[in-house]
Amino acid sequence: MHRLRWSQNPNYTEHNSKASFLAGYAYAGLSGPDAPLLCAVPRGGLVLLGPDVEYPSHHHQPKEVYLVLTPGAQWCLDEGDWFDVAAGDLIFHDSWQMHAMRTREHPLLAFAGWIEAGDRRAIGWSAKADPQTTR
Ligand SMILES: [Fe+2]
């Protein structure tokens, strides 16, 4: 654990993201082109959301798998309703599928892996959750 390097996507800034998200989100890469296990694919790592934080709806070209490690979070896919997830749940995001996560009283720790090559800078926010209009 002491070797994990927690950071944020450099494209998530105060100009396009809610302050509560920037204050409550972190990512520690495990594998990938910029992670301790150097490889092109998969780009995998741990995602941490603090309590009462929403990772806004977003999308990207690489297919993605999440393994939920803690209880109490919710997920939203496409334009659907929020649903509860449990520790041990696997969630698949297809290419360009909109997805969002949120926490309530408990933080979320999850493993996230892109199973195809891709650039983190290419993550796009949805129009629905455009931080410019929801701040
Ligand atoms: Fe994603």
Give an overview of the whole structure.
This protein is mainly β. It is built from two helices and twelve strands; from the N terminus they run βαβββββββββββα. The structure holds fe (ii) ion (FE2). Fe (ii) ion (FE2) is lined by residues 60, 64, 93, 99.
Please outline what is shown here.
7% of the residues lie in helices and 39% in strands.
The best one-word shape is globular
CATH architecture term? Sandwich
Give the termini separation.
Answer: 34 Å
CATH superfamily: Jelly Rolls
How large is the share of residues in beta strands? 35-45%
Task: Give the CATH topology.
Answer: Jelly Rolls
- What number of structural domains do the residues give? 1
H/I helix tally: 2
Helix-strand sequence: EHEEEEEEEEEEEH
What ligands does this structure carry? fe (ii) ion
**What is the tally of beta strands?**
12
Radius of gyration: 14 Å
- The level of helicity is under 10%
